[in-house]
Design goal:
19 helices, 427 residues, disordered C terminus, mainly alpha
Length: 427
Protein backbone atom coordinates (compact mmCIF):
# COMPACT_ATOMS: atom_id res chain seq x y z
CA UNK A 1 0.00 0.00 0.00
CA UNK A 2 2.86 2.35 0.77
CA UNK A 3 4.47 1.44 -2.55
CA UNK A 4 1.20 2.30 -4.31
CA UNK A 5 0.47 5.54 -2.46
CA UNK A 6 3.97 7.05 -2.23
CA UNK A 7 4.53 7.69 -5.98
CA UNK A 8 1.15 9.42 -6.33
CA UNK A 9 1.90 11.47 -3.24
CA UNK A 10 5.26 12.49 -4.76
CA UNK A 11 3.55 13.65 -7.96
CA UNK A 12 1.13 15.78 -5.95
CA UNK A 13 3.67 17.19 -3.50
CA UNK A 14 6.23 18.10 -6.16
CA UNK A 15 3.74 19.00 -8.87
CA UNK A 16 5.48 16.62 -11.24
CA UNK A 17 4.78 16.32 -14.95
CA UNK A 18 6.66 14.69 -17.77
CA UNK A 19 8.59 11.42 -17.77
CA UNK A 20 9.19 11.30 -14.00
CA UNK A 21 5.49 11.81 -13.30
CA UNK A 22 4.61 9.04 -15.76
CA UNK A 23 7.10 6.70 -14.10
CA UNK A 24 5.55 7.44 -10.69
CA UNK A 25 2.08 6.82 -12.10
CA UNK A 26 3.04 3.44 -13.55
CA UNK A 27 4.79 2.50 -10.30
CA UNK A 28 1.71 3.48 -8.31
CA UNK A 29 -0.52 1.45 -10.61
CA UNK A 30 1.72 -1.58 -10.22
CA UNK A 31 1.72 -1.15 -6.44
CA UNK A 32 -2.07 -0.99 -6.37
CA UNK A 33 -2.38 -4.22 -8.38
CA UNK A 34 0.00 -6.01 -5.99
CA UNK A 35 -1.79 -4.57 -2.95
CA UNK A 36 -5.06 -6.10 -4.15
CA UNK A 37 -3.55 -9.57 -3.91
CA UNK A 38 -2.57 -9.01 -0.28
CA UNK A 39 -6.10 -8.14 0.87
CA UNK A 40 -8.16 -10.68 -1.07
CA UNK A 41 -9.00 -12.64 2.07
CA UNK A 42 -9.40 -9.63 4.37
CA UNK A 43 -12.82 -8.99 5.88
CA UNK A 44 -12.29 -5.26 6.21
CA UNK A 45 -9.95 -2.65 4.80
CA UNK A 46 -6.69 -2.22 6.76
CA UNK A 47 -6.24 1.03 8.66
CA UNK A 48 -3.18 1.82 6.58
CA UNK A 49 -5.42 2.04 3.51
CA UNK A 50 -7.53 4.78 5.10
CA UNK A 51 -4.38 6.61 6.17
CA UNK A 52 -3.19 6.52 2.55
CA UNK A 53 -6.59 7.70 1.31
CA UNK A 54 -6.65 10.63 3.73
CA UNK A 55 -3.10 11.64 2.76
CA UNK A 56 -3.76 11.48 -0.96
CA UNK A 57 -7.08 13.31 -0.60
CA UNK A 58 -5.49 16.21 1.28
CA UNK A 59 -2.54 16.45 -1.10
CA UNK A 60 -4.81 16.37 -4.15
CA UNK A 61 -6.80 19.34 -2.86
CA UNK A 62 -3.89 21.38 -1.52
CA UNK A 63 -2.12 21.27 -4.89
CA UNK A 64 -3.43 23.43 -7.75
CA UNK A 65 -4.39 21.37 -10.86
CA UNK A 66 -1.27 19.80 -12.35
CA UNK A 67 -2.58 18.52 -15.67
CA UNK A 68 -6.07 19.32 -16.90
CA UNK A 69 -7.40 22.85 -16.34
CA UNK A 70 -11.05 22.00 -16.94
CA UNK A 71 -11.71 23.24 -13.43
CA UNK A 72 -11.14 26.81 -14.62
CA UNK A 73 -13.63 26.28 -17.44
CA UNK A 74 -16.18 25.27 -14.81
CA UNK A 75 -15.39 28.48 -12.94
CA UNK A 76 -15.61 30.66 -16.03
CA UNK A 77 -18.96 29.24 -17.11
CA UNK A 78 -20.20 29.82 -13.58
CA UNK A 79 -18.95 33.42 -13.63
CA UNK A 80 -20.77 34.03 -16.89
CA UNK A 81 -23.98 33.45 -14.94
CA UNK A 82 -23.04 34.94 -11.56
CA UNK A 83 -20.96 37.95 -12.67
CA UNK A 84 -21.68 38.69 -16.33
CA UNK A 85 -25.33 37.73 -16.69
CA UNK A 86 -24.49 35.80 -19.85
CA UNK A 87 -25.63 32.41 -21.12
CA UNK A 88 -22.65 30.00 -20.94
CA UNK A 89 -24.29 27.76 -23.55
CA UNK A 90 -24.15 30.45 -26.25
CA UNK A 91 -21.37 32.82 -25.11
CA UNK A 92 -17.69 31.89 -24.83
CA UNK A 93 -14.92 32.92 -22.38
CA UNK A 94 -13.16 34.89 -25.14
CA UNK A 95 -16.01 37.43 -24.89
CA UNK A 96 -14.82 38.39 -21.39
CA UNK A 97 -11.03 38.87 -21.65
CA UNK A 98 -10.84 41.02 -18.51
CA UNK A 99 -12.35 38.40 -16.24
CA UNK A 100 -10.11 37.31 -13.36
CA UNK A 101 -10.26 33.67 -14.53
CA UNK A 102 -9.40 34.43 -18.17
CA UNK A 103 -5.58 34.06 -17.82
CA UNK A 104 -5.90 30.48 -16.54
CA UNK A 105 -8.83 29.16 -18.57
CA UNK A 106 -7.94 26.81 -21.42
CA UNK A 107 -11.06 26.44 -23.60
CA UNK A 108 -11.66 30.09 -24.50
CA UNK A 109 -13.69 29.68 -27.68
CA UNK A 110 -15.96 26.85 -26.56
CA UNK A 111 -19.42 27.27 -24.93
CA UNK A 112 -20.37 25.05 -22.01
CA UNK A 113 -21.39 21.47 -22.64
CA UNK A 114 -22.12 20.61 -19.02
CA UNK A 115 -25.55 19.97 -17.57
CA UNK A 116 -27.63 22.83 -16.16
CA UNK A 117 -27.49 21.44 -12.63
CA UNK A 118 -23.70 21.55 -12.61
CA UNK A 119 -23.71 25.01 -14.19
CA UNK A 120 -26.01 26.17 -11.38
CA UNK A 121 -23.49 24.79 -8.86
CA UNK A 122 -20.64 26.53 -10.71
CA UNK A 123 -22.54 29.80 -10.58
CA UNK A 124 -23.07 29.39 -6.83
CA UNK A 125 -19.39 28.65 -6.19
CA UNK A 126 -18.18 31.63 -8.21
CA UNK A 127 -20.69 33.97 -6.60
CA UNK A 128 -19.46 32.88 -3.17
CA UNK A 129 -15.79 33.09 -4.23
CA UNK A 130 -15.95 36.61 -5.62
CA UNK A 131 -12.55 37.27 -7.18
CA UNK A 132 -10.71 34.55 -5.23
CA UNK A 133 -9.22 31.90 -7.51
CA UNK A 134 -8.37 29.79 -4.45
CA UNK A 135 -11.97 29.59 -3.26
CA UNK A 136 -13.14 28.76 -6.79
CA UNK A 137 -10.55 25.99 -7.07
CA UNK A 138 -11.43 24.49 -3.70
CA UNK A 139 -15.13 24.66 -4.52
CA UNK A 140 -14.60 22.09 -7.26
CA UNK A 141 -11.73 20.06 -5.81
CA UNK A 142 -13.44 19.54 -2.45
CA UNK A 143 -16.61 18.38 -4.18
CA UNK A 144 -14.61 15.91 -6.28
CA UNK A 145 -12.78 14.70 -3.17
CA UNK A 146 -16.04 14.25 -1.26
CA UNK A 147 -17.53 12.33 -4.16
CA UNK A 148 -14.59 9.91 -4.29
CA UNK A 149 -14.69 9.43 -0.51
CA UNK A 150 -18.40 8.68 -0.76
CA UNK A 151 -17.69 6.00 -3.37
CA UNK A 152 -15.03 4.45 -1.14
CA UNK A 153 -17.43 4.47 1.81
CA UNK A 154 -20.07 2.62 -0.23
CA UNK A 155 -17.48 0.04 -1.30
CA UNK A 156 -16.27 -0.39 2.28
CA UNK A 157 -19.80 -1.01 3.52
CA UNK A 158 -20.34 -3.57 0.74
CA UNK A 159 -17.38 -5.61 2.00
CA UNK A 160 -15.52 -5.56 -1.33
CA UNK A 161 -12.08 -5.06 0.22
CA UNK A 162 -10.01 -6.04 -2.82
CA UNK A 163 -11.72 -3.75 -5.32
CA UNK A 164 -11.99 -1.01 -2.69
CA UNK A 165 -8.20 -1.16 -2.29
CA UNK A 166 -7.72 -0.99 -6.04
CA UNK A 167 -9.87 2.14 -6.44
CA UNK A 168 -8.52 3.80 -3.29
CA UNK A 169 -4.89 3.49 -4.40
CA UNK A 170 -5.42 4.29 -8.08
CA UNK A 171 -3.15 7.18 -9.17
CA UNK A 172 -5.50 8.63 -11.78
CA UNK A 173 -8.26 8.95 -9.18
CA UNK A 174 -6.21 11.36 -7.05
CA UNK A 175 -3.76 12.94 -9.50
CA UNK A 176 -6.31 13.43 -12.27
CA UNK A 177 -9.90 13.26 -11.02
CA UNK A 178 -9.63 14.91 -7.59
CA UNK A 179 -6.69 17.23 -8.22
CA UNK A 180 -8.37 18.35 -11.44
CA UNK A 181 -11.68 18.88 -9.62
CA UNK A 182 -13.51 17.02 -12.38
CA UNK A 183 -17.29 16.76 -12.24
CA UNK A 184 -16.90 13.15 -13.40
CA UNK A 185 -16.36 12.27 -9.72
CA UNK A 186 -19.77 13.71 -8.82
CA UNK A 187 -21.36 11.84 -11.69
CA UNK A 188 -19.67 8.58 -10.62
CA UNK A 189 -20.85 8.94 -7.02
CA UNK A 190 -24.42 9.68 -8.12
CA UNK A 191 -24.52 6.74 -10.53
CA UNK A 192 -23.04 4.41 -7.92
CA UNK A 193 -25.81 5.47 -5.53
CA UNK A 194 -28.34 4.84 -8.30
CA UNK A 195 -27.08 1.27 -8.77
CA UNK A 196 -27.19 0.65 -5.01
CA UNK A 197 -30.80 1.86 -4.95
CA UNK A 198 -31.63 -0.29 -7.98
CA UNK A 199 -30.21 -3.40 -6.30
CA UNK A 200 -32.49 -2.72 -3.34
CA UNK A 201 -35.52 -2.48 -5.64
CA UNK A 202 -35.88 1.27 -5.03
CA UNK A 203 -36.56 1.92 -8.68
CA UNK A 204 -37.90 5.45 -8.28
CA UNK A 205 -34.84 6.59 -6.34
CA UNK A 206 -32.51 4.96 -8.85
CA UNK A 207 -34.31 6.66 -11.74
CA UNK A 208 -34.15 10.05 -10.03
CA UNK A 209 -30.43 9.67 -9.30
CA UNK A 210 -29.64 8.79 -12.92
CA UNK A 211 -31.66 11.87 -13.90
CA UNK A 212 -29.60 14.02 -11.53
CA UNK A 213 -26.37 12.63 -12.98
CA UNK A 214 -27.65 13.40 -16.49
CA UNK A 215 -28.15 17.03 -15.42
CA UNK A 216 -24.47 17.06 -14.46
CA UNK A 217 -23.14 15.37 -17.59
CA UNK A 218 -25.18 14.01 -20.47
CA UNK A 219 -23.14 10.81 -20.79
CA UNK A 220 -24.69 9.51 -17.53
CA UNK A 221 -27.70 8.44 -19.59
CA UNK A 222 -25.67 5.38 -20.72
CA UNK A 223 -26.58 3.69 -17.44
CA UNK A 224 -30.23 3.51 -18.51
CA UNK A 225 -29.43 0.82 -21.11
CA UNK A 226 -28.28 -2.00 -18.79
CA UNK A 227 -30.79 -1.19 -16.05
CA UNK A 228 -33.78 -1.17 -18.40
CA UNK A 229 -32.52 -4.32 -20.15
CA UNK A 230 -32.63 -6.26 -16.88
CA UNK A 231 -36.22 -5.18 -16.20
CA UNK A 232 -37.46 -5.79 -19.74
CA UNK A 233 -36.19 -9.38 -19.68
CA UNK A 234 -38.21 -9.89 -16.49
CA UNK A 235 -41.24 -8.30 -18.20
CA UNK A 236 -41.43 -5.66 -15.52
CA UNK A 237 -42.71 -3.02 -17.90
CA UNK A 238 -43.75 -0.46 -15.31
CA UNK A 239 -40.40 -0.61 -13.52
CA UNK A 240 -38.57 -0.29 -16.85
CA UNK A 241 -40.63 2.76 -17.78
CA UNK A 242 -40.00 4.30 -14.36
CA UNK A 243 -36.25 3.66 -14.65
CA UNK A 244 -36.11 5.41 -18.02
CA UNK A 245 -38.45 8.18 -16.88
CA UNK A 246 -36.02 10.08 -14.64
CA UNK A 247 -33.24 10.44 -17.25
CA UNK A 248 -35.82 11.24 -19.94
CA UNK A 249 -37.27 14.07 -17.85
CA UNK A 250 -33.74 15.32 -17.23
CA UNK A 251 -33.06 15.40 -20.98
CA UNK A 252 -36.31 17.28 -21.58
CA UNK A 253 -35.42 19.74 -18.82
CA UNK A 254 -31.95 20.25 -20.29
CA UNK A 255 -33.41 20.80 -23.75
CA UNK A 256 -35.81 23.39 -22.36
CA UNK A 257 -33.48 25.23 -19.97
CA UNK A 258 -30.12 24.81 -21.69
CA UNK A 259 -30.39 23.20 -25.14
CA UNK A 260 -26.69 23.83 -25.70
CA UNK A 261 -25.86 21.34 -22.96
CA UNK A 262 -26.90 18.54 -25.30
CA UNK A 263 -25.14 19.74 -28.45
CA UNK A 264 -22.09 21.71 -27.31
CA UNK A 265 -20.11 18.87 -25.70
CA UNK A 266 -20.25 16.62 -28.73
CA UNK A 267 -19.58 19.54 -31.08
CA UNK A 268 -16.43 20.51 -29.18
CA UNK A 269 -14.84 17.05 -29.47
CA UNK A 270 -16.49 15.65 -32.62
CA UNK A 271 -13.45 15.85 -34.86
CA UNK A 272 -10.75 15.17 -32.25
CA UNK A 273 -8.97 11.84 -31.82
CA UNK A 274 -7.07 11.93 -28.55
CA UNK A 275 -3.56 10.56 -28.23
CA UNK A 276 -4.43 7.58 -26.00
CA UNK A 277 -7.50 6.53 -27.98
CA UNK A 278 -7.63 3.09 -29.55
CA UNK A 279 -8.64 4.89 -32.75
CA UNK A 280 -5.44 6.94 -32.97
CA UNK A 281 -3.29 4.23 -34.61
CA UNK A 282 -6.16 3.39 -36.98
CA UNK A 283 -6.28 7.01 -38.10
CA UNK A 284 -2.51 7.14 -38.55
CA UNK A 285 -2.48 3.93 -40.61
CA UNK A 286 -5.57 4.54 -42.75
CA UNK A 287 -5.42 8.33 -43.03
CA UNK A 288 -9.18 8.56 -42.43
CA UNK A 289 -10.47 12.03 -41.46
CA UNK A 290 -11.32 12.67 -37.82
CA UNK A 291 -15.01 13.04 -38.70
CA UNK A 292 -15.14 9.47 -40.00
CA UNK A 293 -13.16 8.15 -37.02
CA UNK A 294 -15.54 9.89 -34.60
CA UNK A 295 -18.58 8.42 -36.33
CA UNK A 296 -17.08 4.92 -36.32
CA UNK A 297 -16.21 5.33 -32.65
CA UNK A 298 -19.75 6.24 -31.65
CA UNK A 299 -21.19 3.31 -33.61
CA UNK A 300 -18.69 1.01 -31.92
CA UNK A 301 -19.63 2.25 -28.45
CA UNK A 302 -23.36 1.83 -29.13
CA UNK A 303 -22.76 -1.73 -30.37
CA UNK A 304 -20.53 -2.56 -27.40
CA UNK A 305 -23.01 -1.21 -24.82
CA UNK A 306 -25.86 -3.01 -26.59
CA UNK A 307 -23.92 -6.29 -26.61
CA UNK A 308 -23.10 -5.95 -22.91
CA UNK A 309 -26.76 -5.33 -22.07
CA UNK A 310 -27.90 -8.31 -24.18
CA UNK A 311 -25.23 -10.71 -22.98
CA UNK A 312 -25.88 -9.98 -19.29
CA UNK A 313 -29.63 -9.47 -19.56
CA UNK A 314 -30.36 -12.43 -17.29
CA UNK A 315 -27.72 -11.70 -14.66
CA UNK A 316 -28.89 -11.66 -11.06
CA UNK A 317 -26.73 -8.64 -10.34
CA UNK A 318 -26.53 -5.66 -12.69
CA UNK A 319 -23.29 -4.15 -11.38
CA UNK A 320 -20.93 -5.75 -13.90
CA UNK A 321 -22.91 -4.79 -16.98
CA UNK A 322 -23.77 -1.35 -15.56
CA UNK A 323 -20.16 -0.51 -14.74
CA UNK A 324 -18.86 -2.02 -17.97
CA UNK A 325 -21.38 -0.07 -20.06
CA UNK A 326 -20.23 3.20 -18.50
CA UNK A 327 -16.56 2.22 -18.83
CA UNK A 328 -17.05 1.31 -22.50
CA UNK A 329 -16.99 4.99 -23.48
CA UNK A 330 -13.62 5.66 -21.86
CA UNK A 331 -12.21 2.41 -23.21
CA UNK A 332 -13.34 2.77 -26.83
CA UNK A 333 -14.16 6.42 -27.62
CA UNK A 334 -12.19 8.37 -30.20
CA UNK A 335 -11.93 11.25 -27.75
CA UNK A 336 -11.20 9.92 -24.28
CA UNK A 337 -9.55 11.25 -21.15
CA UNK A 338 -8.44 9.60 -17.87
CA UNK A 339 -11.35 10.90 -15.81
CA UNK A 340 -13.87 9.27 -18.18
CA UNK A 341 -12.82 5.92 -16.68
CA UNK A 342 -14.14 7.11 -13.32
CA UNK A 343 -17.74 6.83 -14.52
CA UNK A 344 -18.02 3.07 -14.19
CA UNK A 345 -15.06 2.21 -11.96
CA UNK A 346 -16.85 2.37 -8.56
CA UNK A 347 -19.78 0.34 -9.91
CA UNK A 348 -17.45 -2.34 -11.23
CA UNK A 349 -15.70 -2.34 -7.85
CA UNK A 350 -19.09 -2.87 -6.19
CA UNK A 351 -19.48 -6.07 -8.19
CA UNK A 352 -16.34 -7.45 -6.55
CA UNK A 353 -14.97 -8.52 -9.96
CA UNK A 354 -11.24 -7.84 -9.54
CA UNK A 355 -10.28 -8.67 -13.14
CA UNK A 356 -12.47 -6.17 -14.98
CA UNK A 357 -12.03 -3.52 -12.27
CA UNK A 358 -8.26 -3.89 -12.66
CA UNK A 359 -8.52 -3.51 -16.44
CA UNK A 360 -10.55 -0.29 -16.25
CA UNK A 361 -8.37 1.11 -13.46
CA UNK A 362 -5.23 0.32 -15.46
CA UNK A 363 -6.68 2.03 -18.52
CA UNK A 364 -7.31 5.21 -16.54
CA UNK A 365 -3.87 5.33 -14.92
CA UNK A 366 -1.95 4.40 -18.08
CA UNK A 367 -3.90 7.05 -19.97
CA UNK A 368 -2.81 9.55 -17.31
CA UNK A 369 0.80 8.41 -17.85
CA UNK A 370 0.33 8.89 -21.58
CA UNK A 371 -0.69 12.51 -21.08
CA UNK A 372 2.15 13.06 -18.64
CA UNK A 373 4.72 11.89 -21.17
CA UNK A 374 5.91 14.30 -23.81
CA UNK A 375 8.42 14.14 -26.66
CA UNK A 376 11.90 13.27 -25.45
CA UNK A 377 14.69 10.69 -25.75
CA UNK A 378 14.19 7.42 -27.60
CA UNK A 379 13.40 5.51 -24.40
CA UNK A 380 10.76 8.07 -23.47
CA UNK A 381 9.23 7.92 -26.94
CA UNK A 382 9.11 4.12 -26.76
CA UNK A 383 7.38 4.38 -23.38
CA UNK A 384 4.87 6.84 -24.83
CA UNK A 385 4.19 4.42 -27.71
CA UNK A 386 3.61 1.60 -25.22
CA UNK A 387 1.14 3.44 -22.98
CA UNK A 388 -0.55 5.45 -25.75
CA UNK A 389 -0.85 2.86 -28.54
CA UNK A 390 -0.15 -0.69 -27.37
CA UNK A 391 -1.74 -0.62 -23.90
CA UNK A 392 -5.13 0.79 -25.02
CA UNK A 393 -5.67 -2.01 -27.53
CA UNK A 394 -4.44 -4.76 -25.20
CA UNK A 395 -6.68 -3.54 -22.39
CA UNK A 396 -9.68 -3.12 -24.70
CA UNK A 397 -9.34 -6.73 -25.90
CA UNK A 398 -9.18 -8.02 -22.33
CA UNK A 399 -12.01 -5.68 -21.30
CA UNK A 400 -14.35 -7.09 -23.94
CA UNK A 401 -13.31 -10.65 -23.19
CA UNK A 402 -13.85 -10.32 -19.42
CA UNK A 403 -16.96 -8.14 -19.67
CA UNK A 404 -18.68 -10.64 -21.97
CA UNK A 405 -17.94 -13.54 -19.65
CA UNK A 406 -20.89 -15.22 -18.00
CA UNK A 407 -21.11 -14.82 -14.21
CA UNK A 408 -19.91 -17.80 -12.20
CA UNK A 409 -23.28 -18.25 -10.57
CA UNK A 410 -26.77 -17.05 -11.30
CA UNK A 411 -27.97 -17.68 -7.77
CA UNK A 412 -29.49 -14.54 -6.23
CA UNK A 413 -27.80 -13.02 -3.25
CA UNK A 414 -28.65 -10.40 -0.69
CA UNK A 415 -29.29 -7.12 -2.41
CA UNK A 416 -28.98 -8.70 -5.84
CA UNK A 417 -30.80 -6.92 -8.60
CA UNK A 418 -32.92 -8.73 -11.12
CA UNK A 419 -34.83 -10.96 -8.73
CA UNK A 420 -38.10 -12.28 -10.03
CA UNK A 421 -41.16 -10.10 -9.43
CA UNK A 422 -42.38 -10.52 -5.91
CA UNK A 423 -39.00 -11.52 -4.45
CA UNK A 424 -38.08 -9.45 -1.42
CA UNK A 425 -34.66 -7.96 -0.96
CA UNK A 426 -32.91 -7.08 2.27
CA UNK A 427 -29.92 -5.06 3.32
Amino acid sequence: MLAAAAPSAAVLVLGLNGALAALCTVASLAGSLVAVRTVRSAERAPRLLWAAVLTLAVLAVVRAPIGSHDLWSYAFYGRMVSHHGADPYTAVPASFPRDVVYPVVGWRDTPSGYGPLFTAYSAGVTRLAGESLLVMRLGFQLLAMGSVLWCLRVLARSGQVATLTLVALQPFVWVSVVNGGHNDAIMAATLLSAVVAFRRERIGIASALVGVATLIKLSAVILVVPLVAVLLVQRRWRAAAMTAGGPLLALVASAGVAPGAITNASAATRDIVSRASVWRPIQLITGLPSTAITAMSMVGIVVLVGCLAWWHRRDRDCTTQAGASLAAFGMAASYTLPWYLMWGLPILALSGEVAITSIVASRGSLMLASYQLGPGPVVQNLAAFAVSTVAPWVLLVFFVRVAMRRPASDSPGVGAVGCEPGDRLSG
